[in-house]
Structure prediction request, 180 residues.
Amino acid sequence: MENDILKILISEEELHSRIAQLGEEITRDYAGKDPVILGVLKGVVVFYADMIRQIRVPCQMDFMCLSSYHGTQSTGNMVVRQDMSVDVTGRHVLILEDIFDTGSSLDYTYRHVCSKNPASIRICTLLDKPERRKPGITLVPDYVGFTIPNEFVVGYGLDFNEHYRNLPYVGVLKPEAYQK
Ligand code: 5GP
Ligand code: MG
Prediction:
């Protein structure tokens, strides 16, 4: 698996120190708000587990699962595979995502959560690829871990054909790994 990696883009150490900083910000911003921390499965799982432990205020965990039809391209055809289970009416919701790429998934998630009448919604994404943003997407993430160039990345929850999610860092695959 590690042999398929061309280069490490973000190391374990960089991930952990940036997540600690984000945790301090979120802890400050959500003091006394008892937020619902909503993870969008499955890419967020590794980031979520590290992030939630840096949020030092009372909060609730929840998840939803979206799917779109994609390999390396997301198409924007979204369905809710599993909806959230917490009633977020009047609650402060913080959406955690692995990556903000074209923006279609987060835009869809944002509108889905909005329809449940929360008190507020903010977005925290580990990675942001602004160069890939689809025209018409006006959503701006409130917390960004790392802004990255237009490269397809794997690891730390992110997959290629459901593999590589368990790599502890964010990396770029060798071209031949796509042929497997
Ligand atoms: P969107 O294009 O809607 O912003 O992103 C949709 C989904 O595509 C992300 O949640 C993620 O699962 C996947 N995605 C986008 N860019 C990448 C990438 O560079 N690597 C991987 N592994 N998945 C990506
Ligand atoms: Mg994915």
Observations:
- The two ends are 11 Å apart (CA to CA).
- Residues 43, 74, 98-106, 152-154, 158-160 surround guanosine-5'-monophosphate (ligand 1) (CB under 6 Å).
- The CA atoms of residues 94 and 156 lie 20 Å apart.
- The mean pLDDT is 94.
